[in-house]
Amino acid sequence: MKNKIQIILACVLVVAVVLACGQFSSQSASPASPSAVTAVIVPEQSVESGAEAGSSGLGDSLYPGFGNGGYDVASYALDITVDDISTSRLTAMTTIEAVATQDLLGFNLDFVGFEISSLTVNDEPADFSRKGQELTITPLKPLLKDQSFTVVIQYQGSPEKMQSLSMPVQAGWVTVNGGSFVLSEPDGSASFYPVNDHPLDKAKYTFRVTVPNPLEVAANGVLIETIDNGDTSTFVFEVRDPMASYLATINIDEFDIETMTSENGVPIRNYYSSELPKEVREPFARQGEMIDYFSEIYGQYPFEVYGSMVMNAVFESALENQTLSIYGIDAIDFEDVAETEFIVAHELSHQWFGDSISVADWGDIWLNEGFATYSEGLWIEHLDGREALDDWVKSQYADVVENSYPAPGNPSADDLFNGGVYVWGGLTLHALRLEVGDETFFEILPAYFERYKNGNATTADFIAVAEEVSGKDLTEFFDNWLYGETIPPIPALGLGN
Ligand code: TRP
Ligand code: ZN
To answer: Per residue in 43-86, pLDDT tens?
Structure first.
C-alpha cells in the first residue's frame, strides 16, 4: 500500500522535474526602487514620536521572515486579469483592508516578482522599496494604532518561479500547458499577491478573475457571479470565513463541474479538468458521507461549501486549499478507488485541522498532518471497524520504524512535511486514544475544535485541552510521543519493545 507520505515525498521529485520543464522563464526580482508615481516625502516627526516600522517577520520558529508585524489584515480583494494564458501574464490589483496594531511609520508585505505600477495607502501614493520577498511601504502619514487603512497595489507581469523553503518544490502559481494552478503551502502565496504571509493573520478574501473564453476559474469559497464580457469572462468568488494566506487558490482551466449535497446539507462542487476521463470522479463520490462523518466526530463542517479539484497535471500530491482541495492527476489511482479515498478523506479532514484551526507556528505542523493522517484511520474504522483500524495502525507503525522517521514535534525548516509529522504524528493521536480511552478521546477532539476553530492553535493549546478534558497530566506522554528519540511502544497492539 502506497501511503500518503510516499506520495507526498515522491511529489517533491516529480514536481521539481515537471516544473523545471515549465513554460515560463524566470525573471529576476525587480530591484528595490522608489515608486515612479510617488514623491518621496519623509514623514515629519510629529505627534507619533513613538511610531516605528512594523517588523518584517512574525516570529515563526522555523521561518522568522514569513509574515510581517504591526498590522492585522481584515480582507484581501484580488482583481486579476489573465492577459496571456501561456505565460500567465497578469494585470492585477490587490486591495488590502487592515488595522494597525501599533503606531506605524511603515510596514511590510511579502511579495515576489511583478512590476508594481501604483501603490496607495488610504488613496494617497505611498513610497515603497523591495528586497527579496519584502515589500516595504512607507505611507505619507504614519498610521496610528487601531487605525483602519487600505492598501491598493497595481502590478503586472508573470508570476516568478518560487522555490519553497520547506521542501524542494516550486511554490505558488504554476503555469502549465493551457492553464495554471496554485500550490502555496507554506510559502507560495507571495508569488501572485502581496500578502502578510503567515497563518497567524487570517483574513476574508474576494477574487475577481478575468480569463479568455472558454477558460474558467476555480477559486476558494462561493462563486457569486460570472460575467461574460464577450471575449473574456470574469469569475467572482468570496471567502467569508477567515482563511490563512497559503490556502488562497486561483486555478484556470476548462472544467467539468459536478455538484451534490451531503445528506446533512453541505454543498459540494468538484472541478475536474475537462480532458480527464469520467472515472476520475469515483474516489470523490463519498465526500458527502465523509463530511457528515467528520462533522459528527469533530464538530460541524466549518465552511459554506466544499469540493475537490483535479488538474490534468503531474504533481503526485494533493493540498487542502480551504473549501477546494486540489489533486494532481497522478494522485488519483484509477485502479484502486479505495486507496485514493484515503487521500480524499485526508484532505477533507484538513478543513477542520489546518484550515479552520490553523497552526500558530509552522513548527506545529503535526497539528495539521498528524490529524489528517489519523483521520484516514478513523475513516477506515468507520467503514470496516476496529480491527481494520488496528491493522492500519500496525502498518503505520512499521512505516515509522522502517524509515526512521523523526519525531513529529520538531520538524526542520527545510523538511517540514517529513514522514514523522504525518505518520508518527497520526500515531500520537492513536496513542492518546489508548491512554485516555475512547470516550474521552472523542470528547477531546471536538472540544479542541470548538475552542480554536476559525483561529490558530499551538501544540501547547492542544495538550491543554487534552489534559483538561481527561483530567490527566499528559506532560510525559506528549514529551515522549512528540519529541522522543524513537517512537514509544504501543503494547496493546504488540508494537515496539
Ligand atoms: N498539506 C499537503 C497534504 O495534504 C501536503 C503539501 C504541503 C503540499 N505543501 C504542499 C502538496 C505543496 C502540494 C504542494 O498533505
Ligand atoms: Zn495533509
So the answer is: 344 444 578 999 999 999 999 999 999 999 999 999 999 999 99
Q: Which tens digits make up the pLDDT trace of 224-270?
A: 999 999 999 999 999 999 999 999 999 999 999 999 999 999 999 99
Asked whether residue 451 is domain-assigned, the answer is: yes
Q: What is the mean pLDDT of residues 286-300?
A: 98
Ligand 1 atom with minimal separation from the 185 CA? 9
Whole-number Å distance between alpha carbons of 173 and 292: 32
Probe residue for ligand 1, chosen from 165, 417, 421, 423 as the CB with the greatest number of ligand atoms within 8 Å:
417
Last residue of a domain, one of 195, 216, 248: 248
The CA 287 to ligand 1 mean position distance, Å, reads 19
- Digit-coded pLDDT (tens) for 486-496: 999 999 999 99
Mean predicted lDDT score pLDDT of the chain: 91
Q: What is d(CA 16, CA 477) in angstroms, rounded to the nearest whole number? A: 38
Query: What mean pLDDT is predicted for residues 392-408?
Result: 98
Burial of 352 (0-12, 13-18, 19+ CB in 10 A): buried
Query: Which residue owns the Cα nearest ligand 1 atom 9?
Result: 185
CA distance 41 to 52: 16
Q: Which of 345, 379, 395 is the last residue of a domain?
A: 345
Instruction: Pick from 185, 187, 344 the residue to mutate for probing ligand 1's pocket: most ligand atoms within 8 Å of its CB.
Output: 185
Q: Please work out, in degrees rounded to the nearest 5, the angle formed at the alpha carbon of residue 167 by the alpha carbons of 164 and 172.
A: 30
Task: Domain of residue 341: give its range.
Answer: 254-345
341 in the same domain as 221 = no
Question: Residue with C-alpha cell 487601531?
Answer: 146
Are 340 and 284 within one domain?
Answer: yes
Pocket around ligand 1: residues whose beta carbon is below 6 Å from it?
8, 183, 185, 317-320, 346-347, 369, 417
Terminal CA-to-CA distance of the chain, rounded, Å? Answer: 25
- Does residue 33 form part of some domain? yes
Q: Are residues 263 and 155 located together in one domain of the fold?
A: no
Same domain for 232 and 265?
Answer: no
H or E element that contains 344: helix 337-349
In the chain, the number of structural domains is 3
Residue 223 CB-density burial (10 A; 0-12 exposed, 13-18 middle, 19+ buried): middle
